[in-house]
From TrEMBL:
Coiled coil: none annotated. The keyword Transmembrane helix applies. The chain crosses the membrane at residues 7-25, 72-93, 102-119, 125-147. This is DUF4306 domain-containing protein. Keywords: Membrane, Transmembrane, Transmembrane helix. InterPro entries: DUF4306.
Length: 164
């Protein structure tokens, strides 16, 4: 792996960690808003079958709250996650098109399902996430097509360090 890709990978991972910590902090506001627990604390409601205590909130519910109402850092976190995922997929499976395309197809399928699920959300945060998931699915499909096309084949340098 060239030095440039290693720097990109480490940088994106650091951005992911920092954005996750800030999102977790922003999502901590959920503890002080019990009227929002019914709609936002989906993981805690599912696991505890309804609850009335802020101590029973799961950490994932903090991220859901941040994504709904403070979406900037959760979106940065998601973008950096997808960047790391795509970078590792194209690096680790450089010589295996079938495996790489299967991973990209899985990412595209999950992204399009998430886009469909979040598209009609009343909050701007989930609408932005729906758009992000739609773009990610489109990039995944483009990655599968570009790898198979003759113009971007590995023989012409697509997977040999000239892409990034």
């Amino acid at each position: 792996m060239p030095f440039k890709r290693i720097v990109l990978l480490i940088g994106a991972f650091v951005v992911f960690i920092l954005a996750a910590l800030i999102s977790w902090y922003e999502g901590g506001q959920l503890r002080g808003e019990p009227w929002e627990w019914r709609y936002t604390a989906v993981f805690s409601n599912w696991a505890n079958e309804g609850f009335t205590n802020a101590d029973n909130l799961w950490v994932l519910d903090h991220f859901v709250y941040a994504a709904k109402f403070e979406p900037f850092y959760p979106i940065v976190m998601a973008i950096s996650f997808f960047f790391v995922l795509f970078l590792l997929t194209f690096w680790l499976f450089r010589g295996r098109r079938g495996v790489r395309n299967a991973i990209l197809l899985l990412v595209a399928s999950i992204s399009f399902l998430a886009c469909y699920a979040l598209f009609d959300s009343p909050t701007i945060g989930f609408q932005l996430f729906a758009f992000l998931f739609g773009i990610t699915g489109a990039f995944s499909v483009f990655g599968m097509i570009a790898v198979k096309s003759v113009g971007y084949s590995e023989a012409k340098g697509f997977g040999k360090g000239k892409f990034l």
